[in-house]
Amino acid sequence: MLPDRIPADAALFLDFDGCLVEIAPTPDAVRVPPELPPVLSRLHDRLGGAVALISGRAAGDLRRFLPGFPGAVAGSHGAELSLPGQPVRPVMAADGFDVARLQDRVRQLAAPHPALLVEPKPHGVVLHYRAAPDLGGWVTQAMIRLAGDYPMLALQPAKMAVELRPAGAGKDRALAGLMAQPPFAGRLPVYAGDDLTDEAAIAEAQALGGFGVKVGPGDSAARHRLPDPAAVLRWLEDAA
Ligand SMILES: O=P(O)(O)OC[C@H]1O[C@H](O[C@H]2O[C@H](CO)[C@@H](O)[C@H](O)[C@H]2O)[C@H](O)[C@@H](O)[C@@H]1O
């Protein structure tokens, strides 16, 4: 079912890849539609500043793609927070391991397979197999084995990728944390996202009396659905 117009008392939480931008062959190849930044700015004004991005991406990465975005950004699945005008800060960095060493170990794993792509993150690492889908099973097993050495990290399957991220992080916790503070507190949480990692945040938004919007195909607990990022943009434009 298509979502209604975004209510004026909404707190709007948006995923990035697959929701605001189409999935691309590599993380750096995504294209931000030119209409998107002004629409996000207008919505930010209209909703009293209660618009945030909640993404698996590093927060700095998101600020680079949307440099003028005036709202809050929760990055690395909520392990980092970037409030407007403030530097990115860790919310729950996983302690007790050397992140550079972990990233080196993943690079070594990937070395025999040049089509694999290693994406280092401030608190973890992603191994992408979009350019070699046949290696998906191998990547998953290799990352599961590696995860055994890192109890403070959680294995996060994603679209054509497997990630190790801080075990305590989660988009649901990021949403709950923002909803506890101004300008989000007291508003109706609305969360839109396309991936498995978004389901916890969709459930959290709905548990707090709001609603979730699943973008694209696949099972979801969301009450509403939009087919793709182009439809998300139209939905945002209608309310901006
Ligand atoms: O939470 P999101 O904003 O949806 O971010 C999830 C992950 O997105 C990126 O990877 C995915 O998108 C890439 C670009 O379209 C694609 O090439 C890749 O196959 C997808 O898995 C990003 O690179 C990750 O860090 C995010 O966790």
UniProtKB/TrEMBL annotation:
Pfam family, one: Trehalose_PPase
GO MF terms, alphabetically ordered: metal ion binding; trehalose-phosphatase activity
UniProt keyword list: Hydrolase, Magnesium, Metal-binding
EC number(s) per entry: 3.1.3.12
InterPro entries: HAD-like_sf (IPR036412), HAD-SF_hydro_IIB (IPR006379), HAD_sf (IPR023214), OTSB-like (IPR044651), Trehalose_PPase (IPR003337)
Gene3D superfamilies hit by this protein: HAD superfamily/HAD-like, Trehalose-6-phosphate phosphatase related protein, domain 2
Catalytic activity: alpha,alpha-trehalose 6-phosphate + H2O = alpha,alpha-trehalose + phosphate
GO biological process terms, semicolon-separated: trehalose biosynthetic process
CC cofactor: Mg(2+)
Pathway linked to the protein: Glycan biosynthesis; trehalose biosynthesis
Domain of life, source organism: Bacteria
NCBIfam families found in the cross-reference section: HAD-SF-IIB, T6PP
Protein task: Removes the phosphate from trehalose 6-phosphate to produce free trehalose.
Family from the record: Belongs to the trehalose phosphatase family.
The protein, known as: Trehalose 6-phosphate phosphatase
